[in-house]
Amino acid sequence: MISPARTYWDRTTETMPPGELEKLQAGRVQDCPERMRASGVAYYRERLSGIEPGEIRSVDHLGRLPFTVKDDLRDHYPFGLFLAPIQEIVRLHASSGSTGKPTVVAYTRNDLKLWAETLARGLVAGGVGEGDVLQNAVGYGLFTGGLGFHDAASLVGAAVVPTGAGNTARQVTLMRDFGARALVATPSYALHLAEVALAEGMDPRSLPLRAAFPGAEPMSEEMEAELEDLMGVTVYEQYGLSEIIGPGVASSCGLSEGMHVWEDHFIPEVVDPESGKPVPDGEVGELVLTAPTKEAFPLLRYRTRDLTRMTREPCPCGRTFARISKILGRTDDMIIVRGVNVFPSQVEHALLGVEGLAPHYQILLSTRPNRQTEMRVRAETRVQAADAATRAALQARAQEALGTALGLSTPVELAPPRTIPRSEGKAVRVLSQGVESP
Ligand code: DLL
Fold first, then answer.
1. 133, 142, 252, 375: which has the highest count of C-beta atoms within 10 A?
2. Is the CB of 119 under 6 A from ligand 1?
3. Å from CA of 396 to ligand 1 middle
4. What does 257-309 look like in DSSP terms, one character per residue?
5. pLDDT score for 372
6. 242: Cβ below 6 Å to ligand 1?
7. 37 and 44 in contact (C-beta within 8 Å)?
8. What is the average per-residue pLDDT within 130-158?
């Protein structure tokens, strides 16, 4: 039953002394390049040609290996990098991405077990177990969210309601009728669910819902607080990506900031995105992950493009695993406006600090040949402004907040309540307009 945190799915592993963890990781990183070499796949042979057999003997040696990037996966579409023969593969997922071929990932039976185990740790940290109804409102299908959480929730013994995303009014009714105590949804869809519940005259706070497990897109502190407040839940944020396994790479324990990386299987490094050199703990950089234990598709030093900070400060929950902060942006979602670097997450942070604005916004970019990118922000108001003066004051406050946060004067358009499109999965916040090819 949902109970306060400090419960573990796998206490021995989750609280492993750092020295033991290092030993475990060392064995795993040693094995993986050898498996790759033995596979006969030309890509691995070439990639590892400068590395002596047995050279990688600890996590500290990982830096000698080249990075893997998304294009490596695309270039070997669909199955070119898999180590397991198709006879051993029991699941395929894919993520579309905005350009080019999708990236395809594969799982053996053991990989599916490993995935459910690591994600189960996150669910149990949020108190989910037997006797709980968990509504799984992320997409089922090629997206890893739906089936990933489904298997993990089944493993911990919760009764899963596999609604997937969409059909929101019905979701809300089911949530009430089935007495869901846990919800999995993207943060933007969780907000939308709360909004629809309120519109149907149902206060989500009066429901048995106790814990939410949002992930798959950035969520500012303000957005998290809004979710907790609107739904009367504790939020346990989840992080992951299909290439590494799906959700279940890192999970929050609710007792400290950030998310514990399940680093017995997913080994994190944080590097300077330009130089690729490691940055010290506490500094922002790009998260690089090594997944040495998967059978079908292990990865060495995969560049996630996600920007975060890592800490090894002890956590009151007793877990010894490193934590990453909220994802602060992606190296590829940075917008350069009049020479200033802007991340959408900064815009969200600034807007949600302005009283009167709802957590729904769009960043509108106009790019014209030989002109600098211009940025406007459309921000939804919580209520219809009573008069022009109130509206103008709110607009001015929003512009000021953005100006301070970004160091850039940014025009703000106010949008009436409930006019910015809601998403069922990952919200689209940045819209490019007037793009012409030069
Ligand atoms: O989004 C897996 C997932 C599903 C995670 C459900 C959590 C919950 P992809 O579709 O491959 O996989 O997208 C991965 O989503 O590189 C991040 O940029 C972003 N992302 C995932 N979790 C978070 C998070 C799933 N908690 C990409 N905060 C990643 C911010 C996140 N961004």
1. 252
2. no
3. 34
4. SSEEE-TTTSEEEEE-TTT--B--TTS-EEEEEEE-S-SS--EEEEEEEEEE-
5. 85
6. yes
7. yes
8. 98
